[in-house]
Design goal:
Blueprint: E1 5-7, E2 10-11, E3 20-29, E4 34-43, E5 49-55, E6 58-64, H1 66-76, E7 83-87, H2 88-91, E8 99-109, E9 112-121, E10 126-132, E11 137-143
Antiparallel strand pairs: 1-6, 2-8, 3-4, 3-7, 4-5, 5-6, 8-9, 9-10, 10-11
Length: about 140
């Protein structure tokens, strides 16, 4: 299931109903926050690897085969310097969680525009990634409902 997106407003309906088998993010660890950079996702229902990030208010989503993904993933998920890796599947207990929605859109609050990716799960859990490009900040929020 090849999925490729580079858009400000989009969805990934192909993964609705899938369950997470791998979900990690690498990013910079600052004194008071974690700025996510690159996400890697795989579901039980497919052999593909999905690599995505938010930049300049847009979602950048690519699909890789196992062989294509391995080298890139090893580089992306290597911990060095301020770069850390978080295991979202483990830390947020997503093992048997079904994806019900993946949507990217833009918002404007107090004249500040930002991009937002929301991944919703059947249990009500949410992963929200926001890109505030003018401030060069990307935020990751994990919510239980």
């Amino acid at each position: 299931m090849q999925i490729r997106r580079q858009d400000f407003t989009t969805g990934i309906p192909q993964l609705i109903g899938h369950t997470v088998s791998f979900f990690k993010v690498s990013g910079d660890s600052k004194a008071d926050r974690f700025d996510p950079a690159v996400f890697w996702l795989q579901t039980h229902e497919t052999n593909y690897w999905y690599r995505f990030s938010l930049h300049a208010f847009a979602l950048h989503w690519d699909t890789y085969s196992e062989s294509e993904a391995q080298q890139l993933m090893d580089k992306d998920l290597e911990q060095r310097g301020q770069q850390q890796v978080k295991n979202l599947k483990k830390d947020f207990r997503l093992d048997k969680e079904r994806i019900v929605s993946i949507k990217m859109d833009q918002h404007l609050i107090d004249e500040q525009r930002y991009g937002q990716l929301r991944i919703l799960f059947e249990s009500g859990k949410k992963i929200v990634v926001q890109d505030f490009d003018e401030e060069n900040i990307t935020k990751l929020t994990l919510e239980n409902s």
